[in-house]
């Protein structure tokens, strides 16, 4: 085999190890931060540990990749923990009885199912605040960087982030929200609910890695496209799978206005692939070495999209 | 009348006007910040406006008094809005069906009663995040001050603040929380649920007013004592009043471990007055002009404590 091709194979084989190595470090850092919560009430700490105990760690790894090897490793790990706390808080909130009313997440009982609704809400708020305090207390940053990282976190959960996406997803658009066509509504909800946190990971990584400002809009497009693609793949899985396969409550989206529901599974699959191609193009344009990103994205999307039958049923038929 | 005595009477008469003047400015600043929330979903903005529409504005005024006239007026107003947002968010959360299940607050339907539980939770989280972003974006601060103000806000709502107090209040202390006697448990819950936000107002005021570090522990004691006193007075009112008089659901504390329930109303009244005296002493010790504080505190506590009959029934009798 040609040496260049061999290098490529070896590099591809190294990436999953690199990701697993990062996740091991991250899990240790998460445990460290959670051990600092005492003297918080023991039940809250237990609920936080339980909720943070597993996950794909996609956003932290994305942050790590964008930050690159030149970034301060400790700051990257701390900020990765903060992002994962915000992500976990958003899942706890989404799963609540008054929202998606889900009892399973990552194959285990959701936080409210195990600890009760009140403790779940308080744990989510505690995690959000702790994420802010981690970013606000980062060492080795200049104050402008620290302020920007705090701003990313408070923005992603706020009025123009996850909270807005969840409100629109649950209660729909009012006239004042001005979204007349389905594609606009779907794209906005996906951007707020999924894209915002991926963009936050990418933007925080760009700050920590000192990426030049000119590349940031391309990195942002990468995060946005990835978010849209991820949500479409998630909707496909929700329709086609059962809880045993995904580890969370499925067919929760029946009757919801999703890309899948409006355009059918074939078109959703096509759109998902086009978004991934666009994300890849943005990544290459931003000058980042694409291989580890591609490896991570393949590892997420291939098992999701492989489950979709070639001649998938139109979503309308399933409603 | 002696000139000095006359000055004192005039000064006392000026304080309520000064408070009302500050509250008018604050309400305009609140409206300004809420007008910046768009393009957040219209229902969320409406719920935030509704929740922030009224209130005693005690914490903002306390911040303003501690900051003093030398502080930057704009920064004080912005930080006062941030504190009121955190306070409002905590009330929305406390009132939820899974917590105190209250339908009335400040004489009007609670946020979840009017907008539904999901929107109420999302509004509370949105307000918390917005408070952080206000503090993080304050002009005219050096970066150390801005970081300290962000830290105060994320701390007050977090694991060692309101979230912890609410968890302990709802679900009690576990063995690991180590609080063996009733007075310790009651004092800790009151400190977390009520004292934390008053201390946050005082500490933020001290930062904005450039108060010397040596005075801050006395100012903190002032906030803590005031918080304990306030909670005891609130418990007395809860037991003795009806909703028409207080504008919120009453007799919610029946069966709860409060200072009133354990020690009876006479002792609760005595303790409340002793705490107010201790708060006053700390204030004078910190070198702040006490008159406007006394005027504000009298205006809050006199109507509350005057409702308590001289020979108040023991709380045990009401259980």
UniProtKB/TrEMBL annotation, chains A, B:
<comment type="similarity">
    <text>Belongs to the FPP/GGPP synthase family.</text>
</comment>
<dbReference type="InterPro" id="IPR008949">
    <property type="entry name" value="Isoprenoid_synthase_dom_sf"/>
</dbReference>
<dbReference type="GO" id="GO:0008299">
    <property type="term" value="P:isoprenoid biosynthetic process"/>
</dbReference>
<keyword id="KW-0808">Transferase</keyword>
<keyword id="KW-0479">Metal-binding</keyword>
<dbReference type="InterPro" id="IPR033749">
    <property type="entry name" value="Polyprenyl_synt_CS"/>
</dbReference>
<dbReference type="GO" id="GO:0004659">
    <property type="term" value="F:prenyltransferase activity"/>
</dbReference>
<keyword id="KW-0414">Isoprene biosynthesis</keyword>
<dbReference type="InterPro" id="IPR000092">
    <property type="entry name" value="Polyprenyl_synt"/>
</dbReference>
<dbReference type="GO" id="GO:0046872">
    <property type="term" value="F:metal ion binding"/>
</dbReference>
<protein>
    <submittedName>
        <fullName>Polyprenyl synthetase family protein</fullName>
    </submittedName>
</protein>
<keyword id="KW-0460">Magnesium</keyword>
<dbReference type="Pfam" id="PF00348">
    <property type="entry name" value="polyprenyl_synt"/>
</dbReference>
